[in-house]
């Protein structure tokens, strides 16, 4: 039986960048979501690391996350794949491994689609077009993998609110405090509406 709690895997979106904590470091959507679910802080674990790719999650975070035996897993990763050394086959293979492994643990798993980050990046138009093609491909793959594995998908790519400047920091990559708040609220609503699983501290 899973030990109740929330464990998050991924990159700086999960780490909490863009949402500074009062005592230093970052807060982010993970502890915000934990609070909305009524979890004690000790029941919330965050493995998010700045710069992490899907390969980093598979090789460095996945085994640790499964050993946490949480009732709920949240995963946001892939943007670093898309903006750097992109390999379509590796990307799809890694996403399949991540979500299938977590779902096979018996937990509820959720993730989010990739919003139009290329629109905010200071890059040449031809590279922006290339990035947008990659993001479109990634969202197609993500939709298929989540459907196949029974993973809940928070589709922020189609939500108009995520195109607003206030939701993002100046770098265009990381959510602002408002963005992290909106993500936590959206994830909580998705979990409540799509699953009967009770997550309790």
From TrEMBL:
Gene Ontology terms, MF aspect: hydrolase activity
PANTHER family named among the record's database cross-references: GDSL-LIKE LIPASE/ACYLHYDROLASE, PUTATIVE (AFU_ORTHOLOGUE AFUA_2G00820)-RELATED, GDSL-LIKE LIPASE_ACYLHYDROLASE, PUTATIVE (AFU_ORTHOLOGUE AFUA_2G00820)-RELATED
EC number(s) recorded for this UniProt protein: 3.1.-.-
Organism listed in the record: Nocardia suismassiliense
Pfam families reported in the protein's UniProt record: Lipase_GDSL_2
Name under which the protein is recorded: SGNH/GDSL hydrolase family protein
InterPro entries assigned: GDSL_Rv0518-like, SGNH_hydro, SGNH_hydro_sf
Segments forming domain SGNH hydrolase-type esterase: 8-181
Keywords (A to Z) from UniProt: Hydrolase
